[in-house]
Amino acid sequence: MIHLNSFAKINLGLEILGKRPDGYHNLKTVFQTIDLFDTLQVTENENRSGEIHLTGDEPSIQWNEHNTIPRVIAAVYQKYNLRQGFDISVKKRIPPGSGLGGGSSNAAVMLLFLNDYFKLNLTLEEMIRIGMKIGADVPFFLVGGTALAEGIGEKLTPLEDSEEKRVDIVIPTVHVSTRLIFSHFNLTSKPINSKITTFVKSKNYTILENHLEKVTFELFPEVEAIKEKMKKSAYDLVLMSGSGSAVYGVYDVYGIAREQEPADTLPGLKSRFPNANVFVSGTIGRKQYFNRIGASPSGKASVFGADTTEVRILPPQYYL
Q1: Dihedral angle of Cα 228, 232, 236, 242, to the nearest 10 degrees
Q2: What is the pLDDT along the chain (320 residues), one digit of tens a residue?
């Protein structure tokens, strides 16, 4: 049995720049991987026709051919004429409909695994082309760490990892549809002075904003209520991730002492937000991200996440 860790992300700012002829929106954001992950357990089965058996412990998710995992497997199998059956079981920790990228992360990690397992030697660009057909956030999870994303998310510029940050996440028990949020979003005609461009140079978290917050807050006021409550604490940044529903607070792990600290423990957060899902997490850099996904060089040994083994499932030139 092979264990794959599939990590979540947050959006460090999100700016919507325009609408494309294909209906998607051009955007600018900084993606950041965080230490919150699903676990995929993958076992070879005897079905040589390539049949995939997928199960998961989250009842609100479709564990069928419409799920991102079998979709990316089907895309790879069709393109490269592959056949191998797998039994895949998913233990979900990343809540669906939260803006943390769980489905996209699952697809990307499976794509990385297939590239390694079948020795396809795909380049990053080739994997991005496959991943884009599954979801706009999938390409980022092929890079990990901190990355500037433009276009619909497929134009990636890996950035130097920032200093470690603590990330507290609060998620109301509502499922926010990205399609719904974008269908209600109205573009402004005013030119955008990109705060993300400034952030990339300055690393000033306090200037970041998310253009989708207004729409999500109007449709789901409980998300806004969480942000307003978190803003009363001493975070460097409180922002909604993606289209929501997750709201996160960021502060330096090794920062100076402050008069008012954010909640120090998971129980502390839970007491403040008893009707929400809460997580205490932190940022993880690119090298750590790939070391902890869990694929062995052969793809057949369960050594993912071993602290004593440096595991590479991308060529060295992608570790920036």
Answers
A1: -20
A2: 899 999 999 999 999 998 888 778 899 999 999 999 999 999 999 877 889 999 999 999 999 999 999 999 999 999 999 999 999 999 999 999 999 999 999 999 999 999 999 999 999 999 999 999 999 999 999 999 999 999 988 899 999 998 899 999 999 999 899 999 999 998 776 777 899 999 999 999 999 999 999 999 999 999 999 999 999 988 999 999 999 999 999 988 655 445 555 656 677 888 989 999 999 999 999 999 999 997 533 333 333 333 323 333 443 334 33
Q: Is 137 an annotated catalytic residue?
A: yes
Integer angstrom CA distances of residue 2 from 5, 43, 141, 153: 10, 6, 19, 29
Residue 195 — φ and ψ, nearest 5°?
-75, -25
Cis link prior to 105 (omega < 30° from 0)? no
List of domains in the chain = 2-160+285-303 (3.30.230.10), 165-282 (3.30.70.890)
- For residue 90, the Cα-to-chain-centroid distance in whole angstroms is 16
136 in helix, strand or coil?
A: coil
Residue of 35, 38, 116, 137 marked active site = 137
Residue 116 known to be catalytic:
no
Bridge pairing between strands 25-44 and 165-172: unpaired
In this prediction the pTM is 0.88
